[in-house]
Specification:
This protein is an all-alpha fold. Helices cover 85% and strands 0% of the residues. The chain is built from five helices and no strands. Helix 2 crosses helix 4 and helix 4 runs antiparallel to helix 5. The radius of gyration is 17 Å and the shape is elongated.
């Protein structure tokens, strides 16, 4: 239970930093975009370990046994799904508060989304490498 609360706390910190930087610098400033990229990378790492925790916590119900490498693929895929859900949330938030424009700048929304998802996946893959190295040392 402590791990779950810690993971929720860390996720809340990532979201809070995201909101505060967008509020302070403005959602379209270059600084906010750079901070957003770092937060998406960290979010991918976070999501990987969150999915890993949920998978382990629910193990008594699903009793799924799989190879270690396949678990890494599942956790990274779950992190990517969480990234897609976050991007939907971002799109709705941007659309709701009027910073979305159907103009030539609209391509930046697409570019931002693809960059964010790439960084989410890169963070999850990095967490997978970390877990593989850590697991290799424990054998």
């Amino acid at each position: 239970m402590k791990q779950f609360l810690l993971l929720l706390f860390l996720g809340g910190i990532i979201v809070l930093i995201s909101f505060l930087t967008a509020w302070y610098f403005g959602p379209t400033s270059p600084i906010d975009w750079r901070v957003s990229n770092v937060l998406h990378f960290l979010g991918g790492i976070y999501a990987f370990f969150f999915i890993r925790f949920v998978f382990g916590f629910t193990h008594k119900y699903h009793k799924t046994e799989t190879a270690f490498l396949m678990k890494i693929v599942i956790f990274a895929g779950g992190a990517l799904i969480l990234g897609v859900l976050w991007e939907w949330y971002e799109f709705i938030f941007i659309f709701q508060y009027g910073t979305f424009e159907l103009s030539p700048k609209g391509i930046t929304v697409y570019f931002d989304t693809m960059t964010d998802l790439m960084l989410d996946l890169l963070g999850a893959i990095s967490a997978g490498f970390y877990l593989a190295i850590k697991n290799g040392k424990n054998k």
